[in-house]
Amino acid sequence: MSESEKDKMVKIYILGEGFDVPAGSTIVTAMEYAGFQLTTGVGCREGFCGACATLYREKGDYKLQAGLACQTVVSDGMYIAQIPFVPAEKPIYDITKLTPDIDSIKTLYPTVFRCVSCNTCTKACPQDIEVMDYVQALIKGDIAKAADLSFDCIRCGLCALRCPSEIVQYNAGILARRLTGRYLLKKSPDLEPRVKEIAERKFDKELEKLMRTDKEKIKKLYYEREIKLG
Ligand code: SF4
Ligand code: SF4
Ligand code: FES
Predict the structure, then answer these.
(1) Which whole-number Å values give the CA distances from 214 to 7, 48, 205, 219, 229, in the listed order?
(2) Which band of pLDDT confidence, cut at 50, 70 and 90, is reported for residue 87?
(3) What are phi and psi of 167, to 5 degrees?
(4) For residues 204 and 200, what is the distance between their CA atoms, to the nearest angstrom?
């Protein structure tokens, strides 16, 4: 390797073993460059699916950091440990038998009441969600607010991973959004006919066409689509 090529490389450590990888790579691309075949712990590679939660430590910094491997850029001397998954309590429930209030939270996610307001979850969130605030909304029984604040959650689990009270914020957030969707939001007049059309497979041909379309064209179609407001 020439000197100029070496300048463009950084040394990272994956589970203790050192690898030279191109500077500017994300953890995912750096691991692949190092020869790892990632069959789990990665999905969309765009920061949307939440599959690639990773722990790392930067050179000279004792703090353990957490982030999405597909979005976090490597740095020289970085130590990386991928975590296969975040175990998370997920009770089974029948949404039609619940009420959109604090009783559902007490029954299904009593752990949220252990929140000590440390805000660690908010700092860990790669989506910049005010995680502690939605947990606090759940504690107050403000289901609509919790649903609104947690809306952009991608279920990466990093908030739960760092929580000293072992709360599974993101699953409780899903419950809030489900309760809001079922009981608190105004019904859209378009919803039922659209679901019926989907069940009748009206859009299958169009979807097949989209599946064969390249990504750039899909992005263009998405951003130029007509949006019906109100
Ligand atoms: S709220 Fe938690 S699970 Fe959702 S994106 Fe943020 S850190 Fe990930
Ligand atoms: S990390 Fe846990 S205890 Fe701390 S604010 Fe978030 S939910 Fe509460
Ligand atoms: S692979 Fe989907 S968020 Fe990283």
Answers:
(1) 35, 19, 16, 9, 28
(2) confident
(3) -95, 140
(4) 9
Please count the other Cβ atoms lying within 10 Å of the Cβ belonging to residue 128.
8
Distance 171 CA to ligand 1 centre (A): 10
Q: Tell me how far CA of residue 67 lies from CA of 47, 125, 200, in angstroms.
A: 10, 8, 41
pLDDT in tens, 150-179: 999 999 999 998 899 999 999 999 999 999
Burial status of residue 69 (CB atoms within 10 A of its CB: 0-12, 13-18, 19 or more): buried
**Spacing, Cα 37 to ligand 2 middle (Å):** 34
Nearest to 21 by CA among 75, 57, 100, 96: 75
Q: Would you state the pLDDT for residue 230?
A: 55
Q: How far apart are CA 213 and CA 207, in angstroms?
A: 10
Tens-digit pLDDT profile for residues 109-128: 999 999 999 999 999 999 99
Candidate from 138, 162, 167, 170 with most ligand 2 atoms within 8 A of CB, to mutate: 167
Place of tokens 């739960």: 160
pTM of the model: 0.81
Strands 17-22 and 78-82: unpaired
Q: Which of 44, 82, 83, 127 to mutate to test the pocket of ligand 3 (most atoms within 8 A of CB)?
A: 44
